[in-house]
């Protein structure tokens, strides 16, 4: 809960504050999220307006999860912006004209001040969850796991299998070499891949 008492209700009044709050339970997705109780660093600006308090801010959150390619644990710093209006409850009172109730969708999502307090948790939750990477990777060019045995390739750059695979690979090289007589196919492995960025999550 955040307190607006010091802000006052005079429209135009401003107050900034920084606070660290513990993360609520279940903040995240299956692959990445914030551990319960981890520290969320919240910086916000409260602005008193006619109908309530406009809250604008940022939240930093320590994320932990696992790389979708190599399944190694990873940690990232999450960062999200938010803006939310907390209305004074009395603006929704009997004095309200029927014409103002037209916007049903807006009404459903409306958040209200509870006395001088407002509950930022649902706002932080939405902001953090929306900012989470859908396909977190430990490194942009994480090579993932060996498709044959599941060994993480990043830690085993020279990883290869026994003769059975070598023979197949040699046959492939021979084949590739015969297709391109201008150079031995084996050297292609040393070259950087032509694609610059590793944006494609399917990239092997
Ligand atoms: Zn990885
Ligand atoms: Zn392997």
UniProtKB/TrEMBL annotation:
Disordered, as annotated region: 175-204
UniProt biased composition (Basic and acidic residues): 188-204
Domain of life of the native organism: Bacteria
Protein name stated in the entry: DUF177 domain-containing protein
UniProt organism field: Streptomyces johnsoniae
